[in-house]
Write a structure and sequence with these properties.
Blueprint: E1 2-4, H1 10-23, H2 58-68, E2 72-75, H3 91-108, E3 111-116, H4 135-139, E4 142-149, E5 152-163, E6 171-178, E7 185-193, H5 197-200, H6 204-224, E8 229-230, H7 231-240, H8 245-254, E9 258-261, E10 269-272, H9 275-278, H10 288-306
Parallel strand pairs: 1-3, 1-4, 2-3
Antiparallel strand pairs: 4-5, 5-6, 6-7, 8-10, 9-10
Helix pairs in contact: 2-3, 6-8
């Protein structure tokens, strides 16, 4: 089951998938239009203009499978073909339609792609972002999300939201390229993308906050790569770089920075990377401020020994 927002090229992507299957070739490939059929209503079954209905008309569709040698059925959008009386927000109704499609696929060996749109929920779990009942994704073997790349709006990313067939596959990126002399576009694949479905659905404000946090974390790790640093020095450098106190604290907590203290009654706080990171490189000498404090303490101990 796939879903995505409007204007992202969802239909073009599904045509790309259908085209590949008509030729039995890997992406990218042109399709064989002689093996593509668009069914809005079944002949001799429904009156003109009346949509094919699920699950009531599946038996009639099943009769066409051997005649047309059907390998893939795309239902776009799924709710438009629900039988009258079935509510897309009712889990029992959706389960009924989903089970009927599942049985149909098992009997015929036909793969089915059912499309639905995103809802307006701000829920962080991608499984709950599809329109209608949760039964939609519950009945599916695999769930896919199509969204724009937040860092490149002209780029599209196809990410898995659910799979009970294998491990979650990597997300795939592609662009829609115009075809000279035609009013349609074609899919041009660009390989894997590190973005997950959760990343693609992250609200813009949260995405900006996460991007800022990642930048401060990288800055902090770079400053501590050579060894412990005085907190006051880091504070001054962060202020000069325009990094807020809140961002610095979040980065410190996320990176699990070790906060220590130099020796002496008036010791200064120090920051250092966690032990597992510090062991990757040879530990450098402590900052000059720390050495000075230790020298002063050494002189004070010698002085106390001389006293009667």
């Amino acid at each position: 089951m796939a879903w995505g927002g409007a204007g992202l090229g969802r239909s073009t992507l599904l045509c790309e998938l259908a085209a590949r299957l008509t030729r039995g070739e890997p992406l990218p490939a042109g399709g064989d239009p002689r093996r593509v059929f668009a069914i809005g209503a079944l002949p001799q079954q429904l009156s003109a203009g009346k949509l094919f209905a699920i699950p009531g008309q599946l038996a009639a569709l099943e009769a066409l499978v051997p005649r047309l040698d059907i390998a893939l059925i795309i239902v776009d959008p799924f709710v438009a073909f629900l039988e009258r009386g079935l509510n897309a927000n009712n889990e029992q109704h959706i389960r009924r339609a989903g089970v009927a499609l599942k049985d149909f696929a098992e009997r015929t060996g036909v793969a089915i792609v059912a499309v639905r749109h995103l809802n307006k929920s701000a829920h962080g779990n991608p499984l709950y972002r599809g329109g209608g009942s949760i039964g939609f994704i519950g009945a599916a073997r695999c769930g896919l999300l199509l969204a724009a790349d937040p860092d490149d709006p002209a780029r599209r990313v196809l990410a898995a939201t659910k799979t009970n067939l294998a491990q979650v596959p990597p997300s795939l990126a592609f662009r829609l390229r115009p075809i000279p002399g035609a009013d349609v576009a074609r899919v041009v694949w660009e390989g894997e993308s590190p973005l997950t479905a959760a990343d693609l659905l992250l609200p813009a404000t949260n995405r900006e906050r996460a991007s800022t946090l990642n930048a401060v974390r990288a800055w902090l790790r770079d400053r501590l790569a050579a060894g412990p640093r005085l907190g006051t020095d880091l504070q001054a450098e962060a202020a000069a770089a325009g990094i807020s106190l809140a961002s610095r604290r979040r980065a410190r907590a996320t990176e699990r920075i070790v906060v220590g203290k130099t020796r002496g009654h008036h010791g200064h706080s120090t920051w250092s990377l966690p032990p597992r990171d510090s062991q990757l490189a040879q530990p450098p000498p402590p900052p000059a401020h720390v050495e000075q404090v230790e020298q002063v303490e050494h002189l004070e101990r010698r002085k106390r020994k001389r006293l009667p």
